[in-house]
Write a structure and sequence with these properties.
The protein has helices at residues 10-19, 33-49, 66-71, 97-120, 243-248, 320-324, and strands at residues 5-6, 22-28, 55-61, 79-84, 87-92, 140-141, 152-154, 186-187, 194-212, 228-235, 253-256, 267-271, 280-290, 298-299, 301-311. The chain has 326 residues and is α+β, with helices and mostly antiparallel strands. It has two domains: 5-122, Glutaredoxin (3-Layer(aba) Sandwich); 140-324, Jelly Rolls (Sandwich). It is elongated, with a radius of gyration of 21 Å.
Length: 326
């Protein structure tokens, strides 16, 4: 018996997005040849990987469910959209079986490990897959594309957290009852500047940068770290920059944050100049200074929002000319 759910209404689909951690949606049409070709593989994946309230495979006939297709900007068939906790995580607009298998396996492995953690401890309920701000419609959280083993964070206080906590999917401890006792954040060391180099596993398009910073509210303590104020962003660098070099270099985009940019969860949702952040293989974020009179800057979480393009060879950065054709 098929485990794939045929969607008969927008309300049914919305309910599935609420009840299942991962939803895989196959947007198809009966007349579409490539849709029919990939259908047996999709059904096989559904049979193997479907789990109640964890992974749900659906089929959406675009000739019948036009409202759903329009909401998620489906213009090519077949289109496969992967939802994680109700938000778009990946989007594949072809019938490439290798790519389909790869994404399904990655997402299912991740969710199954989360399910095991939930079974071991109920104390984290509601804290996994935390988001500090709304996801822009039509884009996905692509933070998993960061090649963590090759990242580099300069001027970091080694007595606090390491750079991996920035991409942690859990709710920051500063927003929990522990109030930050786990030290799952990073702070600058000798002054307020931080330099973070992030190479990617694939060529990306970046739409939005989400930064969470949750310094303790204690105005009487001179040691309390600050939130970032001025940030310079650079793309397609083969390695990290030096602080003096970054000070003098023209940035791809410079951000000036103020108190109004931070929401109740301590997250700044920053729309990037999308036309400038196309086809990128690495990203450098330079925190120039903090918003206040302190001596350190604190970062709790980072989320990169956009689209994933072609996968590149691991550990190999493309030169800018290779991408732009210059």
């Amino acid at each position: 018996m098929s485990k794939t759910v045929s969607i008969s209404s927008p309300s049914q689909f919305k309910e599935l997005l609420r009840s299942s951690k991962i939803v895989v949606a196959d947007f198809y049409a009966d007349w579409c040849g490539p849709c029919n070709q990939v259908a047996p593989l999709y059904e096989k994946l559904s049979q193997a990987l479907s789990r109640p309230n964890i992974v749900t495979f659906t089929k959406i006939n675009t000739d019948v469910q036009k409202e759903i297709a329009s909401e998620y900007a489906v213009t090519n068939l077949p289109t496969f959209i992967f939802f994680r906790d109700g938000q778009v995580s990946e989007k594949v607009q072809d019938s490439n079986p290798v790519k389909l298998r790869e994404i399904v396996k990655k997402l299912s492995d991740e969710v199954f490990s989360i399910g095991a953690a939930d079974a071991d401890s109920s104390s984290n309920a509601g804290g996994l897959n935390w988001r500090g701000a709304e996801m822009p419609r039509g884009y996905a959280d692509i933070s998993s594309q960061v090649e963590l083993q090759r990242c580099e964070l300069l001027n970091v206080d080694l007595d606090v957290g390491n750079l991996r906590v920035l991409f942690n999917s859990s709710k920051p401890s500063a927003l929990s009852e522990g109030k930050g006792t786990a030290k799952d954040w990073v702070e600058s060391d000798t002054d307020e500047q931080l330099m973070l180099f992030m190479p990617f596993q694939s060529v990306l398009k970046l739409h939005t940068l989400q930064i969470t910073s949750l310094p303790p509210q204690d105005d009487d303590d001179d040691e309390v770290p600050m939130r970032p104020r001025k940030i310079k962003l650079f793309i397609n660098k083969p390695h990290n920059l030096g602080f003096d070099e970054a000070e003098d270099m023209a940035a791809t985009q410079t951000l000036e944050l103020s108190e109004k940019d931070w929401n109740a969860d301590g997250t700044a949702n920053i729309a990037l100049r999308y036309v400038k952040f196309q086809n990128i293989t690495s990203f450098v974020m330079f925190v120039v200074d903090g918003d206040g009179d302190g001596e350190k800057v604190r970062l709790d979480r980072l989320r990169l929002i956009g689209e994933v393009g072609e996968k590149r060879e691991m550990g190999k950065l493309m030169k800018i000319g290779d991408i732009t054709g210059e």
